[in-house]
Amino acid sequence: MTTFSLPTIPGEFQWHISPVEWSYEPTKGLYILAGAQTDWFSDPVGNYAKDNAPCALVTLPDDAFLL
Q: What's CA 48's distance to the chain center, in Å?
């Protein structure tokens, strides 16, 4: 599994759902390319949900950290 860090957020990110392509450049930021037919959507009445879009997770070292 690929991991990465961002200079302003403490911790190491891991892809929960990997993107098609991604990169990080300090002057441009984080770039993520999602695949076709990916989405984060939950029907308000609960009949349908789609949650297959790229997602990176991080465990923060301090409970008081705010983003």
A: 22
- With contact defined as beta carbons under 8 Å apart, do 13 and 54 qualify? no
Calculate the CA dihedral of residues 31, 53, 16, 59 and round it to 10 degrees: 70
Q: What would the two tokens of residue 53 be?
A: 């879009």
pLDDT tens profile 1-44 = 689 999 989 999 999 999 999 999 999 999 999 999 999 999 99
Domain with 30 in it? 3-57
User: Using H for helix, E for strand and C for coil, what is the string for 23-62?
Assistant: EEECCCEEEEECCCCCCEEECCCCCCEEECCCEEECCCCC
Structure tokens at 35: 């695949």
Establish if 39 belongs to a structural domain.
Answer: yes
